């Protein structure tokens, strides 16, 4: 454990390294562009895959709107149940929620994404944007 130093010389965010320490990777300057492995340049995405900055679960669920899905969720600390399975048609997906409709009961479920574990589709998952471009309504903002 590193001793706490009062006064000058040590600032928040700095670490003290032992003499002769060599980092495994060079430091990345602030604002630098990072290359994606296998592409050789920034901003190019592998064919048949969502752009890296747009492949959030909510976007994949939106691309599969109208499809039947089984969603597995875990609720930590619940005394009644800590895991639950929901089956229904994807109606909408947001950054923090998923809306399913159960075709058998007609119920609609608003599910917080914080409890989302995984989803199972009985058919092929849509993972590409229509016409290879950006689809309206898909999230492009950075995660919080």
UniProtKB/TrEMBL annotation:
Low complexity bias spans: 36-47
InterPro entries: Spore_coat_GerQ
Stretches for region Disordered: 1-47
Signal sequence residues: none
Entry annotated with the keyword Nucleotide-binding: no
Record protein name field: Spore coat protein GerQ
Name of one Pfam family that matches: Spore_GerQ
Residue ranges that the Swiss-Prot or TrEMBL entry lists as coiled coil: none
UniProt keyword annotation of Plastid present: no
The organism of origin for this protein: Pallidibacillus pasinlerensis
Compositionally biased residues, Gly residues: 1-11
Keywords per UniProt: Capsid protein, Virion
Superkingdom of the organism of origin: Bacteria
